[in-house]
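Key result, reporting period 2: structure in, sequence out.
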């Protein structure tokens, strides 16, 4: 029988395996991968990770995703926070939860942004941080993700 620690480690490894990127062979790991997985589990759309480590930024990663309406935006934010709290990771700051058009969750080394589609288009963080490495994320199996990436070219 597995101990709690062994079960947590197994769960973390499974979460990291399920989050696949469509940009080459890059794999997300650790808390960023768990945040992405939690968002995908709540049917987040257009999930993108911006790798800001090579830019003069105040954090290492942005996780960007969209919910179709304010209720889904809150559900995605709740799932991310709950998943990371299980690993004893708590956000230093959360903004925008009440309005649920743009929820920002600051975890120091990465920031999770959950938008409604209209708000995401208006603020266009992907464009503002255009010099960051963009990592497209998919919860599809590797073959499906590769096919999707090939179709985009």
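The corresponding designed sequence is given below.
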């Amino acid at each position: 029988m597995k101990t709690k620690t062994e079960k947590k480690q197994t769960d973390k490894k499974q979460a990291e395996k399920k989050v696949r990127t469509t940009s080459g062979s890059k794999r997300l790991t650790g808390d960023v991968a768990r945040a992405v997985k939690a968002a995908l589990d709540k049917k987040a759309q257009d999930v993108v990770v911006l790798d800001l480590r090579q830019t003069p930024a105040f954090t290492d990663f942005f996780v960007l995703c969209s919910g179709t309406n304010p209720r889904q935006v809150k559900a995605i934010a709740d799932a991310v926070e709950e998943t990371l709290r299980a690993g004893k990771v708590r956000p230093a700051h959360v903004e925008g939860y009440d309005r649920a058009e743009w929820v920002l969750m600051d975890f120091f080394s990465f920031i999770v942004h959950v938008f409604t589609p209209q708000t995401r288009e208006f603020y266009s963080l992907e464009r503002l941080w255009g010099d960051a490495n963009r990592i497209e994320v998919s919860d599809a199996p590797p073959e499906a993700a590769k096919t999707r990436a090939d179709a985009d070219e």
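Residues 20-142 form a domain with the Beta Polymerase; domain 2 fold (CATH 3.30.460.10). The longest helix spans residues 70-86. This case is discussed further under Risks and Mitigation.
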